[in-house]
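Risk mitigation, structural track. In case the binding assays with pantoate fail to produce interpretable data, a predicted complex structure has been prepared as a fallback.
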Amino acid sequence: MKKLIIKKTEELEEWRRNLKSNINFIPTMGNLHYGHQKLISTAKNDNSNFNLVSIFINPLQFDNKSDLENYPKTIDNDIKISFSSGADVIFIPATEDIYPSNNKNIKFLKASIELSSALCGLNRTGHFDGVCTVVYRLLNIIKPKNLYLGEKDWQQLLILKNLVQTNKLNISIKSIPTQRDFDGIPLSSRNINLSQKERKLIRFFSNELLIAKNNFKKEKKINLKEITKKLSEEKILIEYLEHLHPYTLKNLEVDDNISILAGAIRCGEIRLIDHVFLMKRSPIIAIDGPAGSGKSTVTKLIANKLKLLYLDTGAMYRALSWLLIKEKIDYKKEKQLNNILKDISIVFKSNTNSNQDVFINNYCVTEEIRSQKISSIVSQISAIKEVRKFLVEEQRKIGKSGGLVAEGRDIGTTVFPDAELKIFLTASIDERAKRRKSDKKSKDSNEIDLNKLKELIKKRDFEDSNRESSPLIKANDAIEIITDGFSINEVVDKIIDLYNDKIPKEIQIQ
Ligand code: PAF
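Fallback model:
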């Protein structure tokens, strides 16, 4: 494919009209560094869309004339870097092209007041309005499917997500983690203007943020005053240093798990920003839904893709049911039940087929718990208060430090009500019966007539939804996905997109 450089807006619009494929758009202001390279190559590797990089120094987002004049300009090198990192087209418009003086239709946008009233917005009047205006203009010209942005400018990312949402643009925003230089400072086009002394100061600042993050892991709190004192002792001029909610940029609530510690400092003429995300525990995804909704398959794939632990709570109820039958326990008798619950250990272990085996009191029951015999009693057993209490505690122990995706019927409501992402996966009874019938794992289902299976599913739904203890209900904050007509991969991708919307990429790689 021939690489293209387009300089005129009309030319780009003409080219766009004739293009059949989708576009990944990577907006930049030039002076490209490894952070931009990573954005361009990530977009290239994500899909087979056209990769378009724009290079445009947007005067509207500079609140200071000398900053605009001193902004590094390295166009020849930028072209080389863009193409070698995976750009197919580079758009390099002139200011008059983006903001033609004779065009009264240019829409000057205002950034979300909520999001731009914090952090950088406090001292950079009009900056985010300028960013919104140029990005909106570029999106209208380029009409991309995906917009790629760095998490280094986290507030900008939130404001642009809000812009896409409020203007109902059909564009997905993809982000990549902040890229850092060998000495830990975030890569930024302005870094080349730093003197050695200034660079030392920003290194100190970034390192203090990192120390705060590591301390937070142990202590679950930070001391802003102490950090400010240490920075001031180094004569670092702090513009702001804030510990906030990462998505609203408002003050934190006690129960918030993820937060952002963000700061801006001044080094001579240069202003630099950096941030870290803090977590009390790693993220949790809760996937609930009725039998046969595709939960297990989807959850396993998500765990694999996101490198999260897979917690199959249904298998725990099934394993317990298996043991109660094997030990001939009359589970309706509280004493007998409590006696056995005292000595139960359920463990998951990865097996050679990259699946998990379930062990209950050292018996490997992976296969046997899928029989129709277990399917027919597990709902009754899991409705018993003592059973639920015991297993919910076990599940919480496994999920104490997070980093997992759990599937079940009461994960989002009872087990992990504080999960970052809650999904309620469902499908029509017809669809679920069909799936169950062709499910190789549920051995006996193959022998049962489809109509009978539908009856069994209806019965199970009724029992699950009407039991006294932790009935199957959708959590208020769960997102419902009806999987009829969708392939497994489509459902998995949808959930991963939702996860990416809720969890910064920077946290996902920790
Ligand atoms: O992040 C940047 O480089 C700029 O703010 C952007 C998004 C290219 C808009 O000018």
